Amino acid sequence: MRNETIERLNRRQLLLRSGVAIAAIGVSPMLLSACGGGDGGSGGTGAAGGMTTAGADGEVGGAVDYLSWEGYDTPDAIKPWVDASGVQINATYIATHDDIQAKILAADGSTGYDITTYYQGYKPLYQELGILQAIDSEKIPNIANLFEYFQGDAGGFWVNPDGARTGVPWTFGSLALTWDDTRLPGGVKSYYDLFDPSLTGKVAAVDDPTGNLALASHVLGLKPDAINRETDLPKVREFLGNVVAQTKGVSASFGDATNLLVSGEADICWLGWAAMNSFAADAGNANVKTALPEEGGSGFCDAFAIPITADNPQTAYSWINNILEPDVNAAANDYLIGATPVAGSVDLLAPATRDLYPYADLDEFLTQIPFYNNPLVESEEFLTMKEWLEIWTEIKANAGA
Amino acid sequence: MTDRLRSPGTMIATLIVLTFLYAPLMIVVLFSFHSSGGLSLPFEGFSLRWYEDVLLKDEFRAAALNSLIVAVATSVTTLLVGMLASIGLSKVRGRARPVLGALFFVPLTLPGLFIGLSLLVWFSRIGLPPSLATVTLAHVVYVFPYFILILMAVLTRLDPTLEETAADLGANPWQVFQRVTLPQIWPIMLAASCLTFALSFDEFIITFFVIGSDSTLPMYIWSQLRRTVNPGINVISTLLLAITMILWAVAFIALLRSERRRRASVPEAGKGVIA
Amino acid sequence: MEQRQGHRLGPLALTLPAVLGLALLFVAPFVTFSIYSFLTAGILPFSVGGPLTFDAYRSVVESEVNRALALNSLWTGLFAAATTVVVSLPVAYWLRYAAGSRRNLVLLLITATIFASYLVRIYAWRSMLGQNGVINSALVSLGVVDEPLAFLLFNRFAVTVALVHIFLPYVVLLLYAALLPIGPNMLEAAQDLGAGVVRRWTRVVLPLVAAPAGTAFVFVFILAAADYVTPQFLGGTSGVMLGVRIQESFLKSGDWPFGAASALSMLLAFLALYGLVVLALRLTGLRSIRFAS
């Protein structure tokens, strides 16, 4: 494996201390041992080949280290569980999804992250980086509560072809369009309506490279992990370039884009997200709505996972099992303004949240909001993640610079 | 200082600059009292609700406490190390002087991005997990040149004959420092410490790279800015402004008083910093 | 006299804690950082290895995006620095020569603004310059314009305004301190010799203040060019700076050699600028720049 040579050379050249499992440049010992070389490290191996399974034996309780988005720890929804099990949650909140792999890889023995989440597109990368442990499905009986689609190995997002489970989905939704209904009644019918001259300077966009690629690919009938550089990439560039040209700048976060909607600087947001409705309402604007135009949208589904650094996996198992209880999941998704993958939760949702997604015909809906993979890490044929990040920066900066 | 150099043009410029500097700050303070959640006009009325909201939040209090701890640790460390270093630097002669000067002042010219990044890499390399301690270390590197700059400005203007006389009269270096140097420089040290405290308290970019799972006040504000904003951030800023401005006013006045006293008692004793 | 010579080692010893601290926390990290810029990024993010190469630098220079961003950072830095220095000069002059008893109060007022939170300030400019902001609302209600002005925010103008706001107090202080050694007598003498305002400025004040003004210019330029947070919030589509790319290389794409190479290239550019300014001052016969002078 190519990486093996690279890591070995590096350590020989730069090793300052001997006999210690080095976190060389923020690469954990786990990665080194995963690649076959290494001074040793503790815990599981990763990457290709068998994954070790997180042990679920032992007492539930103690301190559990959570690493993910703020809000995904749904404090109110899991409060009964927290009180009953007496756990103490130490939360590390991420600012971007990449913080997850950055922090897990950089973690030395002191911070043993026990539970994290991942957006389905990141699965292949996390698999290759070997930062997740296999999850023993039998220890999470509530998996049976999920809609069938989410239980299985759809798209390989949560279960590997060899049967090893890497994640448990618990919330989903889709990227769409969000707009202020008083200034733009009814929104627009199609993503292409964003290019209307009346909307010039009135569109907001969010700086989320993966999200932008996923939604743009969806609109153009492409897949983010199969973008041909010659034939497909120019189309994506053109489309997103036109979108950004309609904006006054790409917002740094969903919250910031919501600010633009609230303060009247923008009327509609590309890469809309239902949660923005409630953000805006909190800020005093109750007229912000989110909906799918005729082309549909790109779906996102977050799954809980157990990092290889976990030193309290049994509590992580308990957390995950609990979040799939119908009433808990409904409460969590009400809070997140998300869609619930738990069949029994649908009727328990608040009407406003339930109306956002067509549960009555879920299968049809899932075809409208397909879940995509991220661009590949390395590829001869297709656009890679690194290339995309560079191109996205270019698109962000082009219109106007 | 005569009337002949009075120039209405520069006075108008100064007034404009003062207005420019204070206008956004007034807006910040004004909206901290906003009765609704928006941050743009129209202004809908006065209310203390956001003060209540912010001060009751645990995360805010934790972040504020952390910022306080880091700022105090940074100022104290910088004071001790910086005091020694600046006195040493002011007395060193020969080739060592420019080399030391360069080493001490170079971090001043580097934007926080570089300091933060190189420390991120370094701490990860030596296996030091990110925490408030790493933040403090990073802050010391950041504020140290400011401290030295201010101290050196004063030390180089001190009259060396005072110290030499004391030494000739048999005082050892510590006594010279205590009886002669310290009384002259303590007000400026206080001012410099206030500055380093404030710089550390408000530091964001470097902290962003080297902090662990704790939060400081700027990091807290940052996380608020990434969401939909409400006057809560104005509240935090108003509070910060009030505290640091009072600190600074105190230091400034102490500085002025001591300058006046010094010039009154020793008319020939060097040039003042405030003139 | 021997007593004093014995103490010669003393001052050096005093600086030892600082030197050690800086060696450990500044020099060593910097060297390590530089080494990274010569390493090769692994295929997977956050992995690096040998051999030592210039590849990262090559991609930095070849990247068109980088060039565009660097140029953007350059312009931002330039505008901010030039505006700040130009605006600060009359204020420093007033403080030094014409302020009289109000000097201390005004100095206090100006320097006190240094302590307003950096982040909140940026946001305050949104409230000032936005469509429903203070300035636009005032203009509309006074009838000066019919529609709010859209060009105040989300462009380089807004970024420059915010950056100037941040650096103004520092530069005023710097220039004021630079004018301190220049007694009013010099200016009065010039006036006595028949020099009008313009001549007093161009022949007496400016040459003496040129060196510190140059220092201030470089100082603001560097910090403004490297600031990527202000442009992110206020700059709109021209708000993408090199700094944010560097940050992303480290935290997002995990390409540390590229990030390190970008950062060091930026640093080299700053050094080059500093050298240029020093050269310009030397060539025009003005004093060379000194720090704590």
Number of strands of chain C: 2
Main β-sheet of chain B: number of strands, strand sense, barrel status?
A: none
Number of strands of chain B: 0
In quaternary terms, these chains amount to heterotrimer
Indicate how many domains the architecture of chain C comprises.
Answer: 2
Task: Record keyword descriptors for this entry.
heterotrimer, A: 401 residues, alpha/beta, D-Maltodextrin-Binding Protein, domain 2, nine-stranded mixed beta sheet, 15 helices, 14% strand, globular, disordered N terminus, B: 275 residues, mainly alpha, 0% strand, disordered C terminus
How would you concisely characterize the structure shown here?
By secondary structure, chain A is of the alpha/beta class. Chain A has helices at residues 2-14, 29-34, 79-85, 98-106, 123-129, 148-151, 209-220, 233-245, 254-263, 275-282, 313-323, 326-336, 351-354, 362-368, 385-398, and strands at 63-68, 88-93, 115-119, 168-180, 203-206, 247-251, 268-272, 288-291, 298-305.
Outline the structure in words.
The complex is a heterotrimer of chains A (401), B (275) and C (293). Chain A has 401 residues and is α/β, with parallel strands linked by helices. Chain A folds into two domains: 56-166 and 300-358, D-Maltodextrin-Binding Protein, domain 2, CATH 3.40.190.10; 173-297 and 375-398, Periplasmic binding protein-like II (D-Maltodextrin-Binding Protein, domain 2), CATH 3.40.190. Chain A contains 15 helices and nine strands. In chain A, strands 1, 2, 3, 4, 5, 6, 7, 8 and 9 form a nine-stranded mixed beta sheet that branches. The longest helix of chain B has 34 residues, at 58-91. Mean pLDDT of chain B is 84; it is low at 268-275. Chain B has a single domain (52-274), classed as Orthogonal Bundle (MetI-like fold). Chain B has helices spanning 8-31, 49-56, 58-91, 96-109, 112-126, 132-155, 160-168, 173-202, 205-210, 217-225, 232-265. With 293 residues, chain C is mostly helical. Chain C has two domains: 1-31, no CATH class; 38-284, MetI-like fold (Orthogonal Bundle). Helices cover 72% and strands 1% of the residues of chain C. Chain C contains 14 helices and two strands, in the order H-H-H-E-E-H-H-H-H-H-H-H-H-H-H-H. Chain C has helices at 2-6, 9-14, 16-36, 55-62, 64-98, 103-112, 118-129, 134-141, 156-179, 184-192, 197-226, 229-234, 242-251, 256-283, and strands spanning 40-41, 48-49. In chain C, strands 1-2 form a two-stranded antiparallel sheet. In chain C, helix 5 (64-98) packs across helix 11 (197-226), helix 9 crosses helix 11 (197-226) and helix 10 (184-192) crosses helix 11. The radius of gyration of chain C is 24 Å and the shape is globular. The model of chain C is unreliable at 1-6 and 288-293 (pLDDT under 50). Chains in contact: A-B, A-C, B-C. The interface between B and C is large, with 98 and 99 residues.
